Inverse folding.
């Protein structure tokens, strides 16, 4: 689960209905404009809360990851990409389904890239604009054309 909303009921109902469990709850960054349900969902399901190591100001326990770390779920590998700019600790997630091939087939960008926009670099990052440029142009736009990109939100603050 990535960047869950505070209302846990739809997630918990789906998990129960489908007989599923969560292993990881991942927040791509610390949100400045809304309350994340990540910690509550991790507690409710026994999953690990995963965030970039730069989120060290959090007051709840989490599994710290850094650029290049990998989490494995069966045939799927999630590779953490540190994509700062919107926030210093922001991550994107490159998803490789090894049944499809050895390379990532999609990237979940969180709020680095949004539908019709990019994440605001002025919320908490002092040099956010420079970092965001690097994350967008040196990392995401450098991907091969076959890699699907899934922005994390629509433009504008919710």
């Amino acid at each position: 689960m990535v960047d869950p909303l505070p209302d846990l009921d739809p997630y918990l109902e789906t998990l129960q209905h489908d007989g599923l469990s969560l292993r990881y709850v991942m927040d791509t960054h610390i949100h400045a404009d809304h309350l994340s349900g990540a910690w509550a969902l991790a507690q409710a399901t026994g999953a690990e809360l995963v965030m970039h190591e730069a989120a060290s100001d959090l007051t709840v326990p989490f599994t710290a990851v850094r650029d290049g770390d990998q989490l494995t779920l069966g045939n799927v590998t999630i590779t953490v990409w540190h994509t700062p700019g919107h926030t210093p600790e922001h991550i994107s997630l490159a998803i490789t389904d090894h049944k499809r091939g050895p390379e990532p087939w999609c990237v979940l960008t969180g709020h680095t890239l949004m539908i019709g926009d990019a994440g605001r670099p002025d919320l908490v990052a002092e040099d956010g604009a420079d970092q965001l440029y690097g994350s967008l142009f040196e990392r995401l736009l450098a991907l091969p054309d076959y890699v699907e990109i899934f922005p994390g939100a629509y433009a504008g603050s919710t």
